[in-house]
Amino acid sequence: MPQSWRADTKPHKFCPGCGHGLVLKCLGQAIDELGIQGKTVFGCDIGCSLLSWDFFNLDSVQTHHGRTTPVVTGIKRARPELICIAYMGDGGGYSIGVQHLISAAARDEKITAILANNTQYAMTGGQMAPTTMPGQKTETTPYGRDPETTGFPLHGQEMVASVSREEAYVARGSIANLRQLKSFIKKALENQMKEIGFSFVEALSACPTNWRTNAAETWDFIEEKMPVYFKVGETRKNE
Amino acid sequence: MNKTTKIVLAGEGGQGVQSVAEIIAEAANEEGKQALYIPNFGVEQRGGVSVAYVQISDGDIGAPKFQTGDIVVALSDRAVRRTVNYAGPGTTFVYESGIEGIESELPQKAGRILPIPAIDVAKNEFHPRVFNIIIMGAVIGATGVIPLERAKAAVEKKLGYKFEKQPKLRDLNFKAMERGVELVAEA
Amino acid sequence: MSKKIVEQEKRAFMTGNEVVAWAALAAKADIMYGYPITPQNEIMHYWTRMAPKYEKSFLQTEDELSAGFTTIGGVMAGRKAFTATAGPGNTLMQEPMSMAEMMRLPTVVVVQQRGGPSTATVIYSQQEVTMTSIGGNGEGMRIVYSTSSHQELYDYTIKAFNTAWKYRFPTFVLGDGYQAKMRESLTLYDPEARGIELIPPEAYVGKEGVPGKDRPPAHFRNTYNMEEELYELVMDALQDYEKISPDVAEYHSAGIEDAELVIVGHGIVYRAIKAAVEAMREKGLRVGYFRPVTLRPLPVPQIKELMASNKQILLMESSYGQLARLFKDVAYGSSTKINTFFKPGMGITAEEVEAAAREILK
Ligand SMILES: Cc1ncc(C[n+]2csc(CCOP(=O)(O)OP(=O)(O)O)c2C)c(N)n1
Ligand code: SF4
Ligand SMILES: [Mg+2]
């Protein structure tokens, strides 16, 4: 268990097979390796990410839906010496809070935003999100997502990259490759620690509960289906 | 007289208390009565005790929740602790007799306390899957709010598509329900 | 012609969210806009399943600001449009609804109240009374129906579309998480078959003819240059609002004449009150109840009459005095004592009502 995890709140509250726990494991390891537990503040959104409000031995705040980015930005602006992390879902970051994420990237806020993309709104019971795949059935696309009327999956990471400054770090990892995901998150945090610029990591994540998938189907979705739309890799890196 | 029967069902997730509650309420509605069913729900319900409230009446039903039930059914140790406060002098408190060491925590003031060995009966006489149907039979037996035939029809409506494929299941479920009625009669 | 959703009256047993979707279809609503939030999600879920079969539309928006403003767009286009929300979503809904109020737009919003403030619980409360009735930077020129049962959810959702299009004030159906999630019996019917005329919508923009040639262009705004200009406009709207209020306001009461104590409450809490009052009456206690169905506008003359009658009042609600504030404003000047029982974000049972009443009658 990463040092920075809070032992007495484990086992965590996510469903079995949930991707959130894996993303937060990478984050915990990155924090340990960088030795920043003493100066990091963690913000989480509404969505299943809220279940991480007491996940770490870090000072933490759970905000309103979509508003984690501005709350964390506010903390960073007031106390630049702190390492500030905003953790959110695809609904929180790419839908209701998209203006905040884009604006933080455009202003090159020295924060690290981490977004778990599970292709739908998990906490509210599985409705369509901007990231829902064409044909994917959700509670609000009961006959499958029709791109004709609801658009195609949003390339959120690329969108953030396109408004980010040169010195930003923007990448997409996946829980299918945890070593890589951890290294992306670590680089993102380093970008903030060195006061270089904004940093953002989208993590392809799993929600077997709302996908109604068994383990094999879950991994097939993450490893085969999602990367068709969501390319894994570093879009912006300051080297 | 406008008497409302108030039922509380509580158990662990997976024990099926919500579907039992829903089917009973639905059957009562089919019977031409007023029925109300409300589950407890919320963000933190994962891993918590599942509680269902059902009310059946010939007239209007009041608030969806209440303080004292006519029948309270608790299927686990946590469920017993969660529901003791719903028991008053007029309450029949039914609990799973397989719960160990719970005797001292049973409601002192309940009118009647009925232990029923539903888990054992399900396992030994039927199939663990029909545990909740036995419970349903127990509730019907203890309350008499709906005729057994109506309850069977409601189960048929819910599970009919399964029975089509496996007619033996129908018999299994209906027998389990009858056994549930017996259990409270014996207790 | 689109098919009728309810051909024949029928008894049903369903959740309140499902009831709302049926009612909106029965009222011939054309389009729903919405953003997911518990406990209203299933309104969208049922609507998205049923609506295509009746050639109705749905748009899932990026948030509630957008859900409210697209609803505004829908009604301006001359369609019966509605949305549904709760809690923090209702907070965001205040911006579009203040525009609807200013521009007299017949938006319909179904609110399933959850615990507050903030994200709080997804379960239940009566804490969105102030926000729904007088939220936004306006004067509360809204119509708010507080329902207490599935039958009322059905009746008043249908009625809300008529009220909105008749009077052109934003109209709200105020339910709560219990009503949203519980199942109970009700009768579904086709309003027209019961002689209820459905008021047809009317376009604000995109009307027949070439603007400036065949007809004057339709110009709408919500921004004004001068205090005087705004004042006149708001006063006109307020006058209209006051004029229609007696027609719009609804209430239920029983046992008031000879009562020593009258219990006041709205929404689902009224059910507990009614059950308790009936039980106490059987035991010979002189109690009655008064329940406003509309929270905006309140039934003012009836409240004033009640307050002049020198009885004890007990006002009960699942918030820390949101109905009480609206009620006391109307009751001002009366020397009758208003006892209160507040349980913010918690349900109130009939047993509690009876205990609180007996405490006062002692
Ligand atoms: C203003 C507001 N609108 C709606 C909601 C309801 N809500 C809670 S979580 C959620 C979606 C979460 O989805 P996502 O951000 O993708 O996170 P996930 O649960 O999938 O991890 C929504 C819509 C809310 N809390 N506040
Ligand atoms: S609902 Fe989905 S995202 Fe939420 S905890 Fe469960 S698996 Fe994870
Ligand atoms: Mg998501």
Structure description:
The complex is a heterotrimer of chains A (239), B (187) and C (362). Chain A has 239 residues and is an alpha/beta fold. Chain A has a single domain, classed as Rossmann fold (3-Layer(aba) Sandwich). Chain A has nine helices and nine strands. Chain B is built from six helices and six strands; from the N terminus they run E-H-E-E-E-H-E-E-H-H-H-H. Chain B has helices at residues 17-30, 77-83, 118-125, 131-143, 148-165, 167-186; strands spanning 4-11, 34-39, 50-57, 71-74, 92-96, 112-116. In chain B, helix 4 packs across helix 6 (167-186) and helix 5 (148-165) packs antiparallel against helix 6. The longest helix of chain B is centred in the last third of the chain and has 20 residues, at 167-186. Chain B starts with a strand and ends with a helix. In chain B, 50% of the residues are buried. The model of chain B has no long low-confidence stretch (mean pLDDT 92). Chain C is α/β, with parallel strands linked by helices and 362 residues long. Chain C folds into two domains: 10-194, Rossmann fold (3-Layer(aba) Sandwich); 252-361, Rossmann fold (3-Layer(aba) Sandwich). In chain C, 41% of the residues lie in helices and 19% in strands. Chain C is globular, with a radius of gyration of 21 Å. At the B-C interface, helix 1 and strand 2 of B face helix 7, strand 8, helix 9 and helix 12 of C. Strand 2 (34-39) of chain B pairs antiparallel with strand 8 of chain C, so a sheet runs across the interface. Thiamine diphosphate sits between chains A (45-49, 65, 89-92, 116, 118, 121-124, 129) and C (35-37, 64, 88-89, 92, 119). Iron/sulfur cluster binds at residues 14-15, 18, 20, 48, 118, 122-123, 207-210 of chain A.
